[in-house]
Design brief:
By secondary structure, the protein is an alpha/beta fold. About 50% of the residues lie in helices and about 15% in strands. It is built from 8 helices and 5 strands, in the order E-H-E-H-H-E-H-E-H-H-E-H-H. Strands 2-3-1-4-5 form a 5-stranded parallel sheet, sandwiched between helices. Helix 1 packs across helix 7, helix 3 runs parallel beside helix 4 and helix 5 packs across helix 6. The protein starts with 9 loop residues before the first strand and ends with a helix. The relative contact order is 0.22.
């Protein structure tokens, strides 16, 4: 049994919408040893009521949703659970908030990349995302520039990416990308 003081591990998948994060997470759940929880931010957005919001209210609601999501992930890890985070670091404050909340030595930051034409194709095929969302996110999502490991889903399958991540977890060096990013903060 995990003692409450032992934090769980966090595999933090960061990439644009439609880059393949959820597909990689599904494979990680299948191949990683022990109990893991996939906590996609989309699940938190799906919990929200479907009432029409004014354009002025949307930014605040989204900001509070993301902040709540970060705290839910931190809470699961603090309780000793291993968590796979499916995230989009398209605004700098999101990374800062996560750096404040997550135990940096326990986080493996994974860059999930995909070519612009491929994410646009996937976006159209899904039909549940605003057109051009991924293209708008591309220059922002990886702006912090540092990862423990990166995957490119343009050519690699979700299983191939998950397998690389699993192999990396077994020999993960220190300091982690999260530790290095936290150390750079003013």
């Amino acid at each position: 049994m995990t003692r409450p003081s032992e934090h769980g591990r966090i595999v933090f998948l960061n990439g644009t919408s439609s880059s393949g994060k959820s597909s990689i997470a599904a494979e990680l759940l299948r191949i990683l040893d022990g109990a893991w929880f996939h906590m996609p931010v989309d699940a938190f957005h799906a919990m929200r009521s479907r009432r029409e919001l004014s354009a002025d209210a949307v930014p605040d609601v989204l900001h509070r949703t993301w902040r709540g999501y970060h705290r839910a992930v931190a809470g699961m890890a603090a309780a000793g659970n291993n968590v796979i985070v499916d995230h989009v670091l398209s605004e700098p404050w999101r990374l800062v908030d996560c750096l404040d909340l997550f135990p940096a030595p326990n986080v493996t930051l994974v860059g999930v990349r995909c070519s612009a034409p491929e994410v646009e194709r996937r976006e159209r095929a899904r039909g549940d995302r605003p057109a051009g969302l991924a293209a708008r996110q591309l220059p922002l999502v990886h702006a912090h520039g540092l990862y423990d490991i990166e995957c490119d889903t343009t050519t690699a399958s979700p299983l191939a990416c998950a397998t690389r991540i699993k192999e990396f977890l077994a020999r993960r060096p220190a300091p982690t990308a999260f530790e290095q990013l936290a150390a750079k903060r003013p």
